[in-house]
C-alpha cells in the first residue's frame, strides 16, 4: 500500500536536499505544541513521515512505536495518520470509539476501481454503507450461505489435491502459493458468478498490484500530475475498463437467464450465486444500482481473495518450517479422516490443533498487517490524546500479534498456546485482530475460515512434504514482498509424496 520503492529514486533524492534545509529551519523556529496530540516522530515538510515507512511499513512502524509509544501521530504528506500498536489502544479505536472511527480514508485509485465507493469495504460510513453491509452480512456471507457452498469448496479442494498428486508423480515441486491462489479465486468465482472464468486470474493480479501501489497523489495532492506522465492514471483506467466490461457481461447473462425463467426470485435455490442475490436485493432497495452490484462483487474478490491465499501460504510456510508441528497436525488429520479419499467439513470440526495452527499463523502473519485504514468522523480523545476529525488510523495488527506484553515468546510459532486459551480472531480479543473488529470488522470471517481449514487439510492429509534439493526446514526463507496484502517474497516450493496409510 505505502511502498516508497515506487517513487523514482533520483527525483526523491533531489527533493530531500531543500527539504533538509527547510526542516532544519523549522526545528529552530518551531512553534511549541498547543494541544495534546499523540507523540510524533520528527517529520519533514511536505513529505511528513512518508520517507520513514520504507517498503515494509508494518516493520518500520513497529520500530517507531517502540520509541514513541502505542499511539503515535504521523503525517503522510498532508494527511494526519494515527498509528496504533498495542491491544489496549486498538480496543479504544475498534470498541470504545468504534462509531467515531467507522469511516475510511480516501484513495484515488480505489475510488476509481470501486465505482466511486459503491462497494462496501471502502464506502464512507453512512446510510448507503449500512444498507450494503446488511445485505452482505445477512445474504452473502451469513453462516447459512457459507454452508450452502460447502460442496463447491470440497470439489475445489479435491481438484487442488489432484493437481498436487500429478506433480508428485512427476517428482517436480509444487508452488503452494499458486495452488492456494487458484483454489481461492475459483471458490470465490463459483460462489459469486456461478462458474469459473479463466481471464479473471490475470485481471485480479493487476488489480492487487494497483491497490498496493503507493500513490503519491493521495498524500501530496499537488504532485498528482506525476501520474499523468508515469502511466499510473492510464493503467488504472485500463484495469477499471476491463473489469467493468467483464462484470457488465456477467450481470447481463444473469439478467437474461432470469428473464428466461420469468424473473422469479429463485428463493428455493439455496445455492443462488452472489450476482443473483444482489439482483434480488436490488428490486427491494432503491439505493442500489447496477454499479453497486458490480462494485460489491469486485469487493468480494478484492477483500476476499488475496487475503485468504496469503493466509494459506504463510500457514503452510510455518507448518513446513516446524516439522514437529507438521507431525502433530498430520497425526490429528489422519486420525480423524483415516485413509478415506477426501476429507469433508464435518471431519474438520474434530480438529482443534488445525484451528490452533491457523490462529497462530494469523497472529504472526496477518495478511493485511495494517488492516484497512479507518478515519475519524469527529474530534475525539484516544488514550487521553486529542485526535482531530478526518485523521486516518492505521492499526498495526502485525505488531500487536508480536507484542511481548501480550504474548509469551511472541516471536515463536507455537500453536499449542491456543489449545488452552479462548482467544479467537473474531474481533473480541484485541491482541489478535487479523480481521479487524467492530462495525467495520471483516464480514467474511466464516467464509475465509471454511476455505483456510479445508485447504490446509487437503494439502496435509494425503501428502508428505519435503524441500527441493534436500533443503532443511529451518532454512526456509521468510522474506516478505511489499504490498497491502503481504505475501511471501519467494514462492513456497515443496515436493509432495503420496502418504502410505
Ligand atoms: C484470511 C482472510 C481475510 C482477512 C485476513 C481479512 C481481513 C479484513 C480486514 C482487516 C478488514 C478491515 C476490518 C476493519 O476495518 O476493522 C476486512 C474487511 C472486509 N472484508 Fe475481509 N478478510 C479476509 C477474508 C474476507 C473474505 C473471504 C471476504 C468476502 C468474501 C471478505 C470481505 C470483506 C469486506 C466486504 C470487508 C469490508 C467491511 C466494511 O468495511 O464494512 N474478507 N477484512
TrEMBL record:
Required cofactor(s): heme
Q: Specify whether Membrane is a keyword of the entry.
A: yes
The cross-references to InterPro entries, in alphabetical order and at most eight, read: Cyt_P450 (IPR001128), Cyt_P450_CS (IPR017972), Cyt_P450_E_grp-I (IPR002401), Cyt_P450_sf (IPR036396)
Q: Does the keyword Transmembrane apply?
A: yes
Question: Which residues are listed as membrane-spanning?
Answer: 12-29, 207-225
Q: Which family does it belong to?
A: Belongs to the cytochrome P450 family.
Q: What is this protein called?
A: Uncharacterized protein
| MF-aspect GO terms | heme binding; iron ion binding; monooxygenase activity; oxidoreductase activity, acting on paired donors, with incorporation or reduction of molecular oxygen
User: Which annotated residues bind heme?
Assistant: 442
Pfam families to which the protein is assigned, alphabetical? p450
Amino acid at each position: 500500500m505505502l511502498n516508497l520503492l515506487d517513487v523514482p529514486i533520483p527525483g526523491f533524492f533531489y527533493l530531500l536536499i531543500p527539504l533538509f534545509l527547510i526542516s532544519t529551519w523549522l526545528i529552530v523556529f518551531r512553534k511549541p505544541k498547543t494541544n495534546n496530540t499523540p507523540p510524533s516522530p520528527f517529520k519533514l515538510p511536505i513529505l511528513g513521515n512518508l520517507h520513514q515507512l520504507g517498503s515494509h511499513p508494518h516493520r518500520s512502524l513497529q520500530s517507531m512505536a517502540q520509541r514513541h509509544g502505542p499511539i503515535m501521530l504521523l503525517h503522510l504528506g498532508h494527511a494526519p495518520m494515527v498509528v496504533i500498536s498495542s491491544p489496549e489502544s486498538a480496543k479504544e479505536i475498534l470498541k470504545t470509539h468504534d462509531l467515531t472511527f467507522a469511516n475510511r480514508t480516501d484513495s484515488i485509485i480505489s475510488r476509481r476501481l470501486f465505482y466511486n465507493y459503491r462497494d462496501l469495504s471502502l464506502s464512507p460510513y453512512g446510510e448507503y454503507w449500512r444498507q450494503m453491509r446488511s445485505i452482505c452480512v445477512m445474504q452473502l456471507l451469513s453462516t447459512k450461505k457459507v454452508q450452502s457452498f460447502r460442496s463447491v469448496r470440497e470439489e475445489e479442494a479435491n481438484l487442488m489435491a489432484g493437481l498436487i498428486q500429478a506433480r508428485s508423480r512427476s517428482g517436480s515441486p509444487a508452488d503452494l502459493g499458486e495452488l492456494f491462489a487458484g483454489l481461492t479465486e475459483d471458490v470465490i468465482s463459483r460462489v459469486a458468478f456461478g462458474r469459473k472464468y479463466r481471464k479473471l486470474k490475470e485481471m485480479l493480479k493487476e488489480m492487487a498490484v494497483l491497490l498496493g501501489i503507493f500513490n503519491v497523489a493521495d498524500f501530496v495532492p499537488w504532485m498528482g500530475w506525476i501520474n499523468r506522465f508515469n502511466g499510473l492514471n492510464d493503467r488504472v483506467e485500463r484495469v477499471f475498463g476491463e473489469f467493468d466490461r467483464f462484470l457488465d457481461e456477467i450481470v447481463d447473462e444473469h439478467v437474461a437467464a432470469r428473464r428466461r425463467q420469468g424473473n422469479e426470485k429463485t428463493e428455493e435455490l439455496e445455492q443462488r450465486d452472489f450476482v443473483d442475490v444482489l439482483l434480488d436485493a436490488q428490486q427491494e432497495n432503491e439505493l442500489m444500482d447496477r454499479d453497486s452490484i458490480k462494485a460489491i462483487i469486485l469487493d468480494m474478490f478484492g477483500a476476499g481473495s488475496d487475503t485468504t491465499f496469503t493466509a494459506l501460504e504463510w500457514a503452510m510456510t510455518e507448518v513446513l518450517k516446524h516439522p514437529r508441528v507438521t507431525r502433530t497436525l498430520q497425526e490429528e488429520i489422519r486420525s480423524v479422516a483415516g485413509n478415506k479419499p477426501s476429507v469433508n467439513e464435518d471431519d474438520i470440526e474434530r480438529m482443534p490443533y488445525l484451528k490452533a495452527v491457523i490462529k497462530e499463523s494469523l497472529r504472526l502473519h496477518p495478511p493485511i498487517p495494517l488492516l484497512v485504514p479507518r478515519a475519524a468522523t469527529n474530534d475525539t480523545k484516544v488514550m487521553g490524546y486529542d485526535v482531530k476529525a478526518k485523521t486516518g488510523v492505521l492499526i498495526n495488527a502485525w505488531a500487536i500479534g508480536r507484542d511481548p506484553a501480550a504474548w509469551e515468546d511472541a516471536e515463536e510459532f507455537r500453536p499449542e498456546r491456543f489449545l488452552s486459551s479462548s482467544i479467537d480472531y473474531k474481533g473480541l480479543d484485541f491482541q489478535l485482530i487479523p480481521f479487524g473488529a467492530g462495525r467495520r470488522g471483516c464480514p467474511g470471517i466464516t467464509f475465509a475460515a471454511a476455505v483456510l481449514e479445508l485447504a490446509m487439510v487437503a494439502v496435509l492429509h494425503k501428502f508428505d512434504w519435503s524441500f527441493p534439493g534436500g533443503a532443511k526446514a529451518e532454512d526456509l526463507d521468510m522474506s516478505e514482498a511489499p504490498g497491502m496484502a503481504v505475501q511471501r517474497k519467494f514462492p513456497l516450493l515443496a515436493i509432495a509424496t503420496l502418504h502410505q496409510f
